[in-house]
Every structure is written in C-alpha cells, then in structure tokens.
Amino acid sequence: MTKKWWHDKVAYQIYPKSFYDSNGDGIGDIPGIISKLDYLQDLGVDIIWLSPCYPSPLADEGYDISDYYDIDPRFGTMEDMDLLLAEAKKRGMYILMDLVVNHCSDEHEWFRKACQDPEGKYGNFFYLRDKKEGELPTNWRSYFGGPVWEDLPGTNKQYLHVFHKKQPDLNWENPEVREEVYKNINWWLDKGLGGFRIDAIINIKKALPFHDYEPDREDGLCTIKAMLSEAKGIGEFLGEMRDRTFKKYDAFSVGEVFDEKPEEIPDFIGDNGYFSSMFDFNETIFGESEKGWYDMKQIMPDDYKKCCFEAQAKVGDIGFLSNIIENHDEPRGVSRYIPEEDCCPESKKMLAALNFMLRGLPFIYQGQELGMENVPISSIEEVDDISAINEYQVALDAGLSKEEAVKVISRYSRDNARTPMQWNDGANAGFTTGTPWLKVNPNYTRINAAAQADDPHSVRSFYKQLIALRKNPAYKETVVYGTLEPAWEDRHNLMAYYRKGGKTLLVIGNYQKDGQEITLPSEYRKVLLNNYPDIVQEDNTIHLQGYQVLILEI
C-alpha cells in the first residue's frame, strides 16, 4: 500500500447546526466552530468533516443544496468559512465538506430552469418522464417513503427523487452535469479544502432503462435498492470524478458506500481507488428489515464483534476503512451497542477502544467523545427527523400502538445524534444563549465537556489516550498499518484481536457486566490502556471485570 498523508490521522465529524451557536439564534454556526478548534486540537483531532452548511431550504437538514458555491446565512458567511480554513491550517488541521451530488434542492436554479423549459438544457439535468394519469413511471419507493416520482411544477412531466421530493436526482448520464460537479469540487479544493465526504454516492448510477420490480409492501412499491442492485457501470463516473478532481490535489475523500461487492473493494479504496477511504457500515445496517424500523433486529455484542471482523477481513490490506460508532444519520452508538441498563463510563470506554483500535481511520462524531446518549422521546410531536416521522407511520400501519411506535423511533431516530452538543451544565448545555432549534438531552447536567475536561477518568480523557496511542511514535506503525487478527473469536461476549506490525498489541474487551477469565498465551510486556485502575490476574490468567477493556503490548 502506498502511504498517504491521511493514514495516521484522526477525524471528527461536526453537525454545524448542533455544535456551537455563537450569536444566540439557537442554531450552531461556523464562528462557533472556529471558537472550538482549540477544544478539538486538545482532543487530538486532525481532520474535521462538516455536514452541509451550504444554502438550503433544510427539507433534509442541508442535504438538499440550493447553491453549491455559498454558505447558508444561518451558519455564517463565506468570509467565516475562509477564516475557518485559515485557522484550521494554523493548527495543522484539515477541513472536509459534504459532497452531495446525487441530488440537489428543488430550489436550485438548475431545477427552476428545468421547470421553465423541461425540453431544454436543464430538463436534461434531471430524470424527467411524461406524466400518465393513474400510472407512475416506475414502482420504486423512496428512502423516505412513498413513490420516487413527483409532478414537475407547471408541466405535464414528473421527476425522479430517490430521497425527499425536494431533492430531485441529478442525471449523471449527462456529461454537462458531471462537468458542473467537477468544476464545483475543484473550486472548493482551490480554496484550501482538505477534501470531501461523499454523500449517497452509490445512487448516482441508475439501472437503464427504468422498469418496475416486484412489490415488497402492501403499498405496491418496491425498495429503491432493487433498482440499485441491477445498476452497472458506476465506476466510469467515479473514476472520472477522481481523476478530474481529488487526484490532482492529493485530497482526502471518503465515500458513503453501501452494498459494494467484495471484488469491487480495490476499485473503491485500493491504491488507485475512486476514494481515499469508505465508511464501514456493517454494524449500522445489522438487523435491518425491509418492513421498517419496527421489525429491526437488535444488535448484540457477538453480532457487533462479527460485523467488525467481517468488514476487516473483507478489506484486509487493500485499503483503509473509515471506522465509526455513530454519525448524523444514526442513533448514539453507546445507546445502540450497549444494553441500556449497562450504559456507564466503563462500557462506553470499552466500546471506544474496540472500535478505535481497528485497522483504518477512526471517525469521532461530535459528543461521542463525551459518551452522549440517545434523547428520551415521549411523542411524535417532538421529532424533527423526516425519516423517523415516516417510520413512525410505517409502524402504526403495521399495527403497533402509538406508544410502541414512539419507542421504535426513540431507538433509531436521527434526532438522537442531532441534539445540541453538551458543553457544560448551564442553560441549554452551553450550546446557545437563545432557544435551541432541537431540544437538548436532559442528561447534559451530568454528561458534558466541562465536567470531563480535567477528569482523568472521564470518557473524553480516555478518547484522548486512545488518540495519543495512535500517534505515539513507538506504536504508530503497528496501530496504523499493522494487520488485524481476531482472538478467542468464539468466546461469548468477548471481543479481542491482535494488531501486528513492528510490535504486537492485544486488544481485549469484556462485552458484558459479569466478569470473565481469559488466559494469555504468554506474558505481556506492558499495559498501554485500561479502563479500570488495575488488572486482577493470577499468572497469565486475567479476571476481566464488567466491560473492562485492555490494550496490552505482548
């Protein structure tokens, strides 16, 4: 593998709307991010990914972009963005933005022009079909529920949207669309951006010609994934985008890639891959059901272990995965991967270490370093997430009571990750002096950055230690480039693996509240990290306490 500048880095995702509000309007902003760069530098972060802060009507919280060349006034100005890039550079940090080019907003000038003249240049920027009374062009269901077809205002045509109806899909088969995308990417890279996280990119290639698939619910529609599984040739688009943009700048790119085939991994993240890296979603998609969230299977410790090891084995040394516990589209990881009654600092640290020491690039989502948890939801009226609102209805239609449906979306709603960052135990968790756009998790009085900053036993301090270990010259080569070999793979509620390179490290996590014993094959040289004050052992047998995690040099 060719070594790259980003291999040994640690990344941090910011959801700008919920990070820090500098002007009291209840919405986080770019000046707020600038004011917290020292906090991130102290943690050890090198790369910062910003979720979308472009102008947007916010039908899907910014993933519906109306202007790719500006900053939404809610978040600040382009001058603020330039200052953020400059201040990050001073600290040796890189800024990533979201690249959302499967679709734009229906308020983008391209779409407005398509409405005015559907037969003209901009009509071909989208997928338009003639409207037929009582009949849809296809029976595909959008990700947010309902058909993917919507009437094109003022015309006798319909347009395709695989996400929200305010997110019309761009026609990547049209070379003029691709040129516009590349021009925009390079404009930002010329500004000094470190790269991009690429949103929903698998959706850009459609199976042509369009046709129906077997319905999978009583609505007579089928999952959009049926079409995507048949689509061929996405590599031509992605390879062209790489060569015309990222490659020229040695920029970092990480793809939101689902359903890739094992033989395609070298194409995606090999030495000349379309992207520098791609996220491992093995754990987040576990237990998914075509019926909806209400039918999802809950992930258990042995499932989590299996998902991680499968992803690691699949990629091997071909390239780098980006490893996550949570992001803006997922519930809080500690609430998902740890039983509710066992959620405590020790278990949170264990989860952190098991994920962080995997081979690949670690991504921390804002508040993850504090162990932020899911927010209690008592009514659908409290929910902002359009995906959760749709799934609530799906659950009701399946016969669940309102209380049961609320419980389902409480577990999986994207609002869980989007509640304001918990800075201190003051009003609104120190996020804003105004009224926050989304309610603050009431547990902010005990889980917040100020309380954890100087506490050597806090979750945040443990994350700092993990980052320091990754960057320690004595261990960096092994942690970054070493192989990963599972250990005691069949042991129930135990996740353990070796990282082997210049040195041999053993990561062991007791994934349960009850203690259990393991016997090491040989003595260890050194304890590099332990979420308990001590180790209980007799000869080479270690008695692991509940949720204890150890990183040992063997």
Strand order, biggest sheet? 1-2-3-8-10-11-12-13
- Silhouette: globular
* CATH classification class of the largest domain: Alpha Beta
Give the oligomeric state of the chains in this entry, treating copies of one chain as homo and distinct chains as hetero.
single chain
Mean pLDDT over the residues: 97
Looking at the overall shape, the CATH architecture of the largest domain is Alpha-Beta Barrel
N- to C-terminal separation?
26 Å
- How would you sum up the major sheet? 8 strands, parallel, barrel
What does this structure look like?
By secondary structure, the protein is an alpha/beta fold. It folds into three domains: 11-102 and 175-212 and 224-379 and 420-461, Alpha-Beta Barrel (TIM Barrel), CATH 3.20.20; 380-412, no CATH class; 481-553, Golgi alpha-mannosidase II (Immunoglobulin-like, Sandwich), CATH 2.60.40. Helix content is 29%, strand content 16%. It has 19 helices and 21 strands. It has helices spanning 16-19, 30-35, 37-43, 78-90, 109-116, 175-191, 224-228, 234-244, 246-249, 265-269, 301-315, 333-337, 345-356, 386-397, 402-412, 415-418, 449-453, 459-471, 476-481; strands at 11-14, 47-50, 94-99, 128-130, 140-141, 149-151, 157-160, 195-198, 222-223, 252-255, 277-279, 320-323, 361-365, 483-487, 494-500, 504-510, 516-519, 526-530, 536-538, 541-544, 549-553. Strands 1-2-3-8-10-11-12-13 form an eight-stranded parallel β-barrel. It has a five-stranded antiparallel β-sheet with strand order 14-15-16-21-18. Helix 10 (265-269) links the parallel strand 10 (252-255) and strand 11. Helix 13 (345-356) runs parallel beside helix 18 and helix 14 runs antiparallel to helix 15. The chain is globular. The two termini are 26 Å apart. The model has no long low-confidence stretch (mean pLDDT 97).
